[in-house]
Amino acid sequence: MSDTISAVWKAVEEDRDYVVGLTRDIVRIPSVNPKFQADPAINREADVQTRLAGELEALGFGVDRWDVFPDRPNLTGEWAGSDERSLILCGHVDVVPVGDQSKWNCDPFGGDIKDGRIWGRGAIDMKAGVAACVAAARAVRKAGVKLDGRLAIHTVVDEEAGGFGAMDLVKRSRLAKSAIIAEPTWGNIVPAEGGLTWVRVTIFGKQAHAGWRFNSIWPQPHVEGRLTPGVNAIELATRFLMALRDFETSRCRANWHPLVPAGLATINPGVIRGGAGMGPDGTPAIMTNAAIIPDIVTIDLDYKFMPQEKFEDVKAEFENFIHHFAASDAWMRDHPPAIEWDLFGLNFPPMNTPVDAPIVQSLNRRATQAQAKAPVIKGFEAVTDAAHYAGAGVVPVIYGPAGDGFHGDNECVEIDSLIETTKVIAAAIIDTCGTA
Ligand SMILES: [Zn+2]
């Protein structure tokens, strides 16, 4: 190991209390995402950012801050350097709600230390990761290392409710060649995750009186003045869901990636609404009257795709499936289902960073040296802000500490793992940015 890395790791060890103290301090500032639970007393992302901005300024970072939503700011800090060897460290400052507080054995916003762990909402997801990024830069500075490449630290809002903080940041900020997202990975290296979008499929029928349903099932010989048959959109939707399940299965069988579980390309029907008449918001206007043959069904899908798939191909394949499904029915041929992609703006591009990318290799080598438990290189089943960096052309990888209870009760981060994470990220800064 080089003298530079040894010096930086010594700085991390001598400065253990800093990363532990910063983690505890920001756990004590409740920053629950207001989209889950709106209450100004606990929606304090801005106060976390103010605290972090102070730390970054003290370390000589050039700081920028702007509101993504009212009083919900993103924060960036940057040390100048070459673009060629530039690196971003990123974390989110929002947390999910506490949930049932009676299940917690500690104050969810206490930041207590017990059993070698820091306890509280956001401890592992992901205030410890954010603190490790800041502490890693501080160790580099303390060891007197001058970097060649530009180093940036990004702390973003709103990861837990769609990643709109990171989505906004990648549109407006200078980016870098590679990025480490310090979400909890239990010391493992995560270079791949699938893409995700939400899709609304709207199925159209023909509204009619339910008393004349017989005329829909056994249409009567046409006579002048007789009712034309209704078409029940709920029944069409049932057929659609059966066909969708087969399509999903065939996609899962046809697409695989070595780092993620087989069958990850799922299409989850998450919300379904059926009724009569199209409302102004694109959902059925009447949903309380069973005496109507319904003409509108909307089905909202959580549509996942594989790390190696391109969104344009995914779209084309699904639209082709819908086209063929509709072509099998005389009514739907003339009244095909409508497809709305990126419902509510939700779209996570896939991340497919190669295992031999320098940033992955650096983290793997340094984690092997620094951690009690050897790292594994693996994919991630859900989505993170890494997606938005990947979509903007950055080479991201996810790496962070070990803990427990994320999105559950009794959330905590292991302090030894937090120190290891700080060391590994500090070494990855040196490897990636180089020394001037
Ligand atoms: Zn997280």
TrEMBL record:
Residues 228-325 form the Peptidase M20 dimerisation domain. One of its GO terms (molecular function) is metal ion binding. InterPro entries: ArgE/DapE (IPR010182), Bact_exopeptidase_dim_dom (IPR036264), Peptidase_M20 (IPR002933), Peptidase_M20_dimer (IPR011650), Peptidase_M20A (IPR050072). Its cofactor is Zn(2+); Co(2+). SUPFAM superfamilies: Bacterial exopeptidase dimerisation domain, Zn-dependent exopeptidases. Keywords: Cobalt, Hydrolase, Metal-binding, Zinc. Pfam families: M20_dimer (PF07687), Peptidase_M20 (PF01546). Belongs to the peptidase M20A family. PANTHER family: ACETYLORNITHINE DEACETYLASE, PEPTIDASE M20 DIMERISATION DOMAIN-CONTAINING PROTEIN. This is Acetylornithine deacetylase or succinyl-diaminopimelate desuccinylase. It comes from Mesorhizobium plurifarium. The lineage of its organism: Bacteria, Pseudomonadati, Pseudomonadota, Alphaproteobacteria, Hyphomicrobiales.
